[in-house]
Amino acid sequence: MCQPTPSSKNQPRKEPRPVINRDDSLCYPSVPSDCNLTRLTPLHPTHVPYRQAASYILSTLQQYDVPPPTIGIICGSGLSSLSKALDANSTVTIPYQDVPGFPNVTVAGHAGEMVVGQLHGKSTICFRGRFHSYEGHDMNTVVLPVRTMRCLGVQLVIVTNAAGGLKDSYRVGDVAVIRDHIALPLLCGKNPLVGMNDEELGPRFPPTSNLYDRKLQEIVMEAARNVKMEQYMHGDGTYAFVSGPNYESKSECNMLKMLGADAVGMSTVPEILAAHHAGMAVLCLSLITNKVVFFDDPNGKVEHANHEEVLAAVAGRGAQLVQLVGEVVRRVGTEFLCERQKLSPICLDVEGRVMVSEDEEASSSVGKKDAGFTLCPFQIAKRISRCDRNYLALGLLIATAGALVGIRKRA
């Protein structure tokens, strides 16, 4: 296994920032042609971290002649073993702490590293650990791995999680294929799409009725039959996202069940929404690690969920999940990705781009009135740039003189 280290030998070569071409190959042109038009569009500070992270990852992969990934996997609690599905002879492991903008993970069962390698002939990146909002991260950080994957050229994201079972037929160790979700935090404004939209990623108002790909759901059920897991599979799951970190109360569990939720957890939906917004296909698998508590035990026995039983349940099903994900990727590579139109490349160059401050963002949403027209800050700056420099110098001189007179009067 190749392991990047901080030594000078393994430092990224000093070459122009990479961009992804449509043929999934790395390109290092002297002037990135894909970025010529994009450089003219403003870039918000929140749009920079995933571009910088992707640039670093691509530079590292180039050192080891590893192609950029087209498939991404996010491992849930205790599911880091999914990276074992990759070919061990061709993997590159990159710790989160080495990637610009990536924080460390703080939750047990999350390794805090990404592994890139071959899986059934497809270059795949596996994130062994995710960021949760209950750790104190904002939503932009929670979805940072997803947007980084989009910048790397990933077309398909497989998201896994450990979840509590709400549906009566769900048993510990079962796997639910998620077809829909209920996300109360997102409905209340805790949404990764809030803020200035990155037009390179996706539209301002994306629909979500087509979020979960039906073709992928069929593929995973067929794959389950091949690896002898069909008796543990449920193909009609609705996932409820709650912020955590506390487990749900009995009344909250009953409410979620009445709303139509089948499983409940503290992750996944923000990442899935960000992936869908960016145009990537999404497959979500929930491993049922515990049955939620709905009522008090008549014998007075106190039952409650805990993280230890979650990790124990994951360990009991881990090997089969590795087989399942591997079979899904094998089928996807021959049946799905070949038919799917490739996504446009993302310009990773952040140097020389117009940076938008938070004040400008707020102003642009309100606009400034000028002669019956609404001008945003960019239009105002553009008009100022057209002015004769002599007039600008004169204006600055008058403003300076006025300021000095004001100071003298106060004195």
UniProtKB/TrEMBL annotation:
Biased composition (Polar residues): 1-10
Location of the Nucleoside phosphorylase domain: 70-323
PROSITE patterns found in the cross-reference section: PNP_MTAP_2 (PS01240)
A single GO molecular function term of this UniProt record: purine-nucleoside phosphorylase activity
UniProt keyword Transmembrane present: yes
Cited SUPFAM superfamilies: Purine and uridine phosphorylases (SSF53167)
Pathway(s) per entry: Purine metabolism; purine nucleoside salvage
Keywords associated with the record: Glycosyltransferase, Membrane, Transferase, Transmembrane, Transmembrane helix
Residues passing through the membrane, by range: 391-407
Keyword ATP-binding: no
InterPro entries, alphabetized: Nucleoside_phosphorylase_d, Nucleoside_phosphorylase_sf, Purine_phosphorylase, Purine_phosphorylase-2_CS
NCBIfam families: PNPH-PUNA-XAPA, PRK08202.1
Family per similarity comment: Belongs to the PNP/MTAP phosphorylase family.
Protein name: purine-nucleoside phosphorylase
Organism from which the protein derives: Cyclotella cryptica
